[in-house]
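Re: that chain you flagged

S.,

Sorry for the slow reply, it's been a week of failed gels. I finally had a moment to sit down with the sequence you sent. For the record, here it is as I used it:
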Amino acid sequence: MLLIVHLLLGYRRLRDLSYYQDDPMVKRLLGLNQLPDASTVSRALGSLDGLSIEKVRELCRNLVIERLKKMALYRLTLDFDGSVLWTLSRTTEGTAVGYNRKRKGARSYYPLFCTLAQTGQVFDVYHRRECP
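Prediction finished late last night. Pasting the structure tokens below so you have them in one place:
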């Protein structure tokens, strides 16, 4: 829930939790007296295994499909789009040095997104292990 609120507030990096660490509205929304530190959230995410991640992905896909059935669209367009997410770390697993127009030579992730053109919903994300 914290990560969803984090994204809705417009933040993308875990370290940005410090900007609203003492915000009473966010604490109340999440039902917490104190928000966790970025390193605590990072450790929690790092402890997830592959099966848990796959179950969350399946849940998200099923929710999108369920909503699409209710919309009864005549035509559905899937948009596949790759992205480049750079990291400052030199030893991060799953990164590679590839084409990155803004940070030449930086190690980056290269996820592939599948979104629904009509609704803008993310259907699935494939984390490519190496650069394209």
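What I noticed first: The longest helix spans residues 50-71.

Talk soon,
D.
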